[in-house]
Task: structure prediction
Amino acid sequence: MPLFMDVHRTVPDGADATAVAQAHQADLKVQEKYSTRYLKYWLDIDAGKIFCLVDAPDAETAHAVHREAHGLVADEIYPVVQG
Result:
């Protein structure tokens, strides 16, 4: 299955590492419905960005998981290859 890295260019107001972890857990709860696997995420609080690594059939399906889980869809999503 293709691998994608998504980028959230803005951390929601008031969100901290705990809130981002909770959003990731929400993704994990619905991902199976979409045949995806959210593998890892990174938070750069200083830059105000969040990055998510996801194994998904396509970019739109990856977005659908975020949309259903918590409504915070990524601003950009890139196909990537693990090296």
